[in-house]
């Protein structure tokens, strides 16, 4: 059975955790408003609508307006969560997010739903692979991709506590549980999930679970892999990245997004500046992600645990060659 | 409600000062949009010196009226109005477009009195809709949100998304004002992209529409008074202000070539003298003539 197919899991899908956490946060934060552009039953923002109908604003299929209205609500003291699919947020409304929200550093929390590979066969137009790159480049914007449902809830709590714009991803998938229910997330802080000495696997979002499985595969070949989860992509934990690679000497990154400009690029920037080391990036490689089964797509794009393990062996080999020279 | 003679004279003077200062800061800043600044001088004079419920001593007053300048390239006129109203010293206007000075477009984090940041056209009305929704939730019933748009700006689809939402949510605390100066960056509206029938468009989107001569202080004030106190009845209102781009300087009037173009010091001096004559004021040239010439030569070639 393919290791990444969690179809038999009894855990809730991440979008259900999103809806549930919105409701929980809304209980304590009476100035929280959820906005939607005709997708609330898909994104599960509808759970908030059901709990607090008077704090739910429907704007219709108009994403540019969605983010402008969110900016206006933030300017009058509310904490808006303008919710839509990640493609529509970060492509259609990028200018509004950039200039109406990020530039004046408004307190808007942007959930990006349906990210990367798992979008239920919707195809290239709906598989958001560029959001990490485009959100990361906006000054003032914080960016996070949760590793599991408890991580997502922690990110959402931290998003509300942080005064300023935040973009966070919700994977339309059921991820294995990595973190405890009372998990704490801190901006700019990563988590060493497994210690190892031969290679570091840096994961974000759903790919951290794949890294953990890859570490098991590598273990079977007597390769000791360290697994570091970096949910906070911006700010990123520079110290932990460098510390880990100083110890292992080589690294693989894995993200449910394009490797161009995204998470792998962020790690590469840190290593390039602070501690150059052999590095491979796992993720979508400058291609559109067409319709398909989730597991088929992960295989097609070389994003399975076995692909991560192969990449780990490749960087290890390069590290060894360097030592010999 | 007619303006008292004193108020009328004051607003006329303010419009004149907004024009002068816009020209001065664009010339000294060596960048900016003269045409779209001069076309809304009367609109800003009536708003900032009569209609807006604001307190420069308490710029964050929760129940203040909000003004969103969606056509943010008109920033010189807005900065001039804010300075004249006492938000910051007039001298600050001469930092326009300099590093750490007043931003070319609008940056609310840099300048007190600005309610939003902007630049790209088409976005402001959505933000104003969000503010109007937010203020209604706070039950600030007397507070109004004003949003000034350019005519060419209404080519942007985002404007009509916002217009649809404003009507859907019955935002009668929202007043849009279109500075309908007929000229865009590179030509006339009817050549580049027709916006007519304009009144019908807004009506079809569910708005009340009032048309005025955008340089007639009495007409603007009457319309804004109506919009604020008489007409709120479950619909947003748009004031279509027919204006002249570059109003007050013959060469810039109705002329797209003065959409984005900073006059050099000597041209600014000529423009300012012309403004004085046109508005029956004592002739006065560019107040920073020498400094401006020096600045021009320092930055020559940039």
What would you say this structure looks like, in words?
The complex is a heterodimer of chains A (325) and B (302). In chain A, the strands form two sheets. A seven-stranded mixed beta sheet of chain A has the order 2-1-3-4-6-5-10, with helices on both faces. Chain A has 325 residues and is an alpha/beta fold. In chain A, α1 runs parallel beside α8 (149-161), α4 packs parallel to α6 and α10 (238-248) packs across α11 (263-274). Chain A has helices at 14-28, 40-43, 46-51, 63-75, 86-92, 94-102, 131-136, 149-161, 207-220, 238-248, 263-274, 294-300, 305-324, and strands spanning 32-36, 56-58, 79-85, 109-113, 142-145, 166-170, 191-194, 199-203, 225-229, 232-234, 251-258, 279-284. Chain A folds into two domains: 14-170, Rossmann fold, CATH 3.40.50; 191-324, Rossmann fold (3-Layer(aba) Sandwich). The model of chain A is unreliable at 1-5 (pLDDT under 50). With 302 residues, chain B is α/β, with parallel strands linked by helices. Chain B has a single domain (5-298), classed as Rossmann fold (3-Layer(aba) Sandwich). Chain B is built from eleven helices and five strands; from the N terminus they run αααβααβαβααβαβαα. Chain B has helices at residues 5-29, 34-38, 41-51, 75-85, 124-137, 157-168, 189-192, 198-204, 217-230, 265-278, 289-298; strands spanning 66-69, 145-150, 174-180, 208-213, 237-242. A five-stranded parallel beta sheet of chain B has the order 1-2-3-5-4, sandwiched between helices. In chain B, β2 (145-150), α6 and β3 form a beta-alpha-beta unit. In chain B, α1 (5-29) packs across α3 and α1 (5-29) packs antiparallel against α10 (265-278). The radius of gyration of chain B is 18 Å and the shape is globular. Chains A and B meet through α4 and α6 of A and α5 and α6 of B.
